[in-house]
């Protein structure tokens, strides 16, 4: 996979990504996905190859954006679909774009240096982007435990202190007080 020549990218390991997508198998087909801090686009491209209806890649680095575009072309060609439902945006994830929640799945693999200082902002971005029954897949260092009051942790994959860990969160259901 093309990484745009950036040596500072640390794409999710194949093993980690396979575990994540095995856990999400039932919700990928037809899903609208966002890949935040996309890097090489590994999460979004995997979702696309497993039947996601659309993927929006958000990455700030220009070279990475160009590499994601090439990777999208290659993956779409290999699975025999067009690229019309793949969107690659060069922008800072923290420069929020207003709009209604539209994503079934939001993936975030931020640079670890941002955590835990900006984790609350990342959770907020995901919460505003997800449909009510959507899932947030958040990669973080294994020794870090991050949570948000709007979301329930439903699964954690990988817990080693020196290895990546992926947490899958669901939006909390509002209480029915009627």
Q: What would you note in describing this structure?
A:
Helix 3 links the parallel strand 1 and strand 2. The chain starts with 13 loop residues before the first helix and ends in a 7-residue tail after the last strand. The protein has one domain: Vaccinia Virus protein VP39 (Rossmann fold), CATH 3.40.50. It has five helices and seven strands, in the order ααβαβαββαβββ. By secondary structure, it is of the alpha/beta class.
Task: Write a brief caption for the model.
The chain is an alpha/beta fold and 178 residues long. Helices cover 29% and strands 28% of the residues.
Secondary-structure blueprint:
Layout: H1 14-23, H2 25-28, E1 32-36, H3 42-49, E2 54-59, H4 62-79, E3 86-90, E4 103-108, H5 119-129, E5 130-141, E6 151-157, E7 164-171
Parallel strand pairs: 1-2, 1-4, 2-3, 4-5
Antiparallel strand pairs: 5-7, 6-7
Quaternary assembly: single chain
Which descriptor suits the 3D outline? globular
Percentage beta strand: 25-35%
Low-pLDDT residue intervals, each spanning 5 or more residues: 2-11
Which strand order spans the largest sheet, edge to edge or round the barrel? 3-2-1-4-5-7-6
State the domain count: 1
Alpha-beta content class = alpha/beta
As a whole number of angstroms, the C-alpha radius of gyration is: 15 Å
CATH class: Alpha Beta
